[in-house]
Amino acid sequence: MANYSGKKYYIKTFGCQMNVYDSGRMASLLEAMGLAKASEPAAADVIIFNTCHIREKAAEKVFSDLGRAYLIKQERAEKGKDTIIGVTGCVVQAEDEEILKRAPYVDFALGPLRYFRLREVVQEIFDKREAKLLDTDFSAESKFDRLPENKAEGGCSYLAIQEGCNNFCTYCVVPYTRGIEMSRPVEDVLKEARRLAETGSVELNLLGQNVNSYHGEDASGRERNLAYLLNKVAEIDGIKRIRYTTSYPADVDDELIRCHKELDKLMPYLHLPIQSGSDAVLKKMNRRHTRDDYLRIVEKLKEANPDIGMSSDFIVGFPGETDDDFQQTIDVVNRVKYIQAFSFKYSRRPGTPAAVMDGQIEEKVKKERLQVLQDLLFSYQTQFNKNSIGKTMQVLFEGRGRHRGQLAGRTPYMQNLHAKADISLLNKIVDVRITDASTNSLSGEVV
Ligand code: 5AD
Ligand code: SF4
Prior knowledge:
Layout: E1 8-13, H1 17-32, E2 36-37, E3 46-51, H2 56-78, E4 84-89, H3 90-95, H4 97-102, E5 108-110, H5 118-126, E6 133-135, E7 156-160, E8 162-163, H6 174-177, E9 182-183, H7 186-198, E10 203-207, H8 226-234, E11 241-245, H9 254-262, E12 269-271, H10 279-284, H11 291-304, E13 309-316, H12 323-336, E14 340-345, H13 363-387, E15 392-400, E16 406-410, E17 416-420, E18 429-437, E19 441-446
Parallel strand pairs: 1-2, 1-3, 3-4, 4-5, 5-6, 7-10, 10-11, 12-13, 13-14, 17-19
Antiparallel strand pairs: 8-9, 15-16, 15-18, 16-17, 18-19
Bound molecules: 5'-deoxyadenosine and iron/sulfur cluster (SF4).
């Protein structure tokens, strides 16, 4: 295979952790061809946007970024340099041919299940054998089987164990962009986990759109669940901390809850989206759980591990949401006292059932509700962070901090933390005493 050393790539990632994982895998595909990472798009021979379609804003942002990349391509062309512009991810799957119509200067577009072709595609375009390429194939073959081995980039790594979703929440594009659920076989996951540990990861975050519906086959062909997999990953010596995200409430079973009691390596933090606290809204969302189901699960999790901190996603202004429905959401927040959360105004997504439901909510009302909800969520988050002051926590340092001589990391509860620390502590788990806290981060001293 031709070597492209001297050439550079730049990948910009939008959206969820799965996209972050996919971008990492794309980077290693390009590096295997000899390309190096560019510090900015203007220095890159290959510019890739790995896109997200979950809300309108995220999807539209891609097109303004693409416009800027086109300017770069033109400027570079004047200097005699070729630039390949690629788009990957969920916008490609959703827009399909439209993407090449809206941005005709795009050289290739690969759906989220097709980026294993990146090498071949980039090579063909570099060598001018192929002018333009669009691939949004949705077939069942697993992209993971076609990717070279993954290796750690730092102390904390994502590991995709499941992809796609069969839940069809009525607001959500995921089943249409990532396809139906598939789970990677147990042995493939464990092999990747061991390899990540060998190359320096001490923390693994097992990823899936609906991670706790994991049902991968073991070596004997038997289907295994997430609880089984967590136990197996916990047996890997080098792995000290384990997380998994994102879970669907109706698929949290007692075995999984037991893991939070029995597995010391499983971090005391769980992202478990409820979306709304109103049963009427949950029903219209086609969620397979009620608010009480959800609260019962949280109660059981807290019984299993009283230290567990909860996180969630919320959507306000779903079609038909009344003030009373919204108050039910507020009530759930007051009961669960989330330590972190993500909240969004409902965004109409073409092709999803909710986009054409009656009772669409005015922007003004959505905005007001989001403000009220976020103020409350932030107050609990700030309170939790302030309560951390004086405690000593195990922090995994993941990168450089805001100031010279500082490192940034995360506590077991996913809080961001900055502390004065020697660079030798990077990618290590270190005891840190918390000295100060705000809504979004903590400061501390290495002990
Ligand atoms: N509008 C607003 N938020 C959405 N999400 C998913 N689809 C939409 C939509 N159409 C949110 C959900 C989900 C998170 C990843 O994004 O809260 O859990
Ligand atoms: Fe979307 Fe629902 Fe699947 Fe989550 S579980 S990705 S919200 S369809």
